[in-house]
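Data deposition worksheet. Section B asks for the primary sequence of the deposited chain exactly as it was used as input, without tags or linkers unless they were present during the calculation. Section C holds the resulting structure in token form. Section D is free text for depositor observations; keep each observation to a single sentence. Incomplete worksheets are returned to the depositor.
Section A, Depositor: J.P.
Section B:
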Amino acid sequence: DRVDLVLDLLVVAGVLGFAILAVVLYAQVTPFFDPPIRDALLQYRAWHGLWNDISEAANFPMIGIAVAIIGYLWWRHRRREAVLVGVTLGLVTAGSEAVKELVHRPRPPESQTVVPGVIYSFPSGHELEAVCILGIVALLVWRSRAPRPVAVGVAILVAIFCAWVAI
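Section C:
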């Protein structure tokens, strides 16, 4: 199916982009797009509360969603998938912390969203949680018997939410 091929290519592009960005940041090079994006977003400081709420929605609620996914899959006797989801999320969390320690990217100036014990900003734990957990939700819906427009709608909503968290 062509849609599956496009999705596979998006995953490969995302992983490759992440790896390239991690290497660039490890080399302590500021990506060319970083200052203009930061400066453009700083003009929305008045919306800090909204952005913080969106970011926090990708924190503890995502953990609840992850536990619910694993529980649901286990209850439906899809135990291999439940274990795979749990292992994937564990590896993503560990990998995120490892990359943070490797890259040592400081948080943006005047950052007020410091999570206790987490002093580095790349990769964003909130963004990784949102992408992984909601990506799993989108994948499960995509593979379900849900009508195709519903599956596409869920995928679009997940992409939009993850973009908001990144901002």
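Section D:
The longest helix spans residues 2-26.
The CA atoms of residues 33 and 133 lie 27 Å apart.
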